[in-house]
Amino acid sequence: MKNRIGIIGGGQLGLMIAQAAHRLDAYVTVLDPASDAPAFAEADASVTGAFDDLKALERLCEASDVVTYEFENVPGDILRHLEGKYNIKQGIRPLFDSQDRLREKDNARAHGLEPPRYMPVPADMSGRPLEPETCAMLSAQERMIHLGMAAGRMGFPCVLKTRTLGYDGHGQAVIREMSDIEKASELLSVPCILEEMVDFDFEASVIMVSDGKDIIHFPVARNIHKDGILDLSVVPASGLQRDGKENATCRKMTSACKEFMRSCGYKGILAIELFVKGDRFYFNEMAPRPHNSGHYTIEGCTTSQYMELCHFLLGMPLETPELKAPTVMKNILGQDLNAAKLVVAESLRGAGPGIEVSSSDSVNNAFCGEAGKGVFVHLYGKTQSRPKRKMGHVTFVPMTLDRYYSEWSARFI
Question: Residue 253 and residue 246: Cα distance in Å, rounded?
C-alpha cells in the first residue's frame, strides 16, 4: 500500500511537493479553497475547503498518513486541534512562530539570531503592543501620533509592517522622513511592527531540512528583488562563496541557522531569509515550508527542497544536496508570462507531429519541462494571470548572473 501524504494548500508549492511525492511513489491528497488550485492537477485526490474549515481539514487528515502545509497562514488554533489527533509531522510550532512578525523576531533573538532593531506599534506607554480590537478603534490622528513617536525613537529610514498576513511587499510601508508618517499610519488599524532599515549588501536565504537528528542545508542563494518581490535567485552566491566553497561568513551563517533550528526543536523544512552586510548577517524572516528562493534546487542540485521534505515526511534518509552547476532562477510574474510562454513556444516549434505551436498563445499556463538546453520552464497552471502574481519560474543551468543579464534579462521586461 502506498504511503499517503496530505498537503494543506494547493498553490505552486503544493504542486511541486506533490510532484516530488509522486517520484517517491506516494499517494497525495491536497486541500485548498480554490477548485482550480494548481496542485489539484497533480494530486491523486483533492478536498475543496477553506483553511479554517475544520471538517474539510479533518477529511484531508483522515485520508493521509502524514500531513504537511505549504501555506503559513493556516489558522494556528485549528492546527492545534488537529495536531493531537493526526500526524502533522513537522508540528505546528514553527508555523505558529512564523505567523506573527513580533513573535517571530522575539523568537529569533531568543535563539541566537540577530534581527534588525524593532518595536511593536501601536503600543502603550510601557511599550506593550495594543490588542487588535484597540488598534481598530484608533482615530487617524492617534495612529499618526503612535507612529510618529515610534519612528522618532527608531530613527529614519525605517519600515512599518503588519504583524500578520503581509507578503511580497503587501502590508508594508517605508518611512524615510516625517512626511511619510501620515500615509504609512493607515496600516495601524491592525497591530504592526516597526523595523530599522538595514543598509545591507544583499539578501540571502538558507533552506534546511531536519529529521530531528541531522540537518542538511542547500547551497545558499543570493536573492535579488524587484518591487518587493523576489525576481532572481543566484547560486553560488557572490560574497558567500570562494573557489566553489562556502566562505567564512557563509559557514557562520549556515551554522547559526542550524543551531537556531536545533534550539527551537523544529523538524521538517525551514527557510530563513537574512540580510548580509559585510561579514555580518541579520534575521529577516522565516518560513516553515518550501521557499520561492529554493525553486532552483529542482534542476540546480542533486536533490531538491521538495524531495528532501518528502524524504522527511516518509521517514526516509535525508540526502545532502550538492550544486550541479552555477544556477539562476527567474520568477515569472503575470507581466512575464507571455515572455516565458514564448521561450517554450520557440523550443517546441518543429518538435514533431502532433505538436502545433505557432506563438506564445499556443502554450498552456501549465507547463513543466526543458525549453532549450539548460532552460527549465515551470508554469504553475494558474487560470488567472495578473501583474505581480507568481505564475511560474525559469531555472537556467548552467548560468552566471552576468550571462543571464547579457543574454536573457531583456526578454522579461
Answer: 10
Determine the distance from the C-alpha atom of residue 344 to the mean position of all C-alpha atoms in its chain, rounded to a whole number. Answer: 25
In a domain, 131, yes or no: yes
Residue entry with cell 515551470: 378
Please check the confidence at residue 66 and state whether its pLDDT lies above 80.
yes
Where in the sequence is the domain holding 142, given as residue range(s)?
Answer: 117-196
Q: The domain that contains 221 carries what CATH number?
A: 3.30.470.20
Number of Cβ within 10 Å of residue 227's Cβ equals: 10
Q: Answer whether residue 23 shows pLDDT above 80.
A: yes
Rounded CA-CA distance 250/2 in Å is 40
Domain termination residue (choose one: 324, 347, 378):
324
Distance of CA 198 to the CA centre of its chain: 21
CATH number of the domain enclosing 11: 3.40.50.20
Distance set, CA 268 to CA 69, 211, 212, 256, 320 (Å): 11, 6, 8, 17, 14
**Among residues 260, 259, 209, 202, which one has the least CA distance to residue 236?**
202
- Predicted pLDDT of residue 358: 58
Confirm if 73 and 9 have CB atoms less than 8 A apart: no
Q: Please tell me whether residues 214 and 244 are part of one structural domain.
A: yes
3-state DSSP: the chain helix, strand, coil percent, rounded to 5? 35, 25, 40
Kindly tell me if the per-residue pLDDT of 215 is higher than 60: yes
Q: CB within 8 A of 267, min separation 6: which ones?
A: 89, 90, 91, 210, 211, 212, 312
99 is a domain residue: no
pTM of the model: 0.95
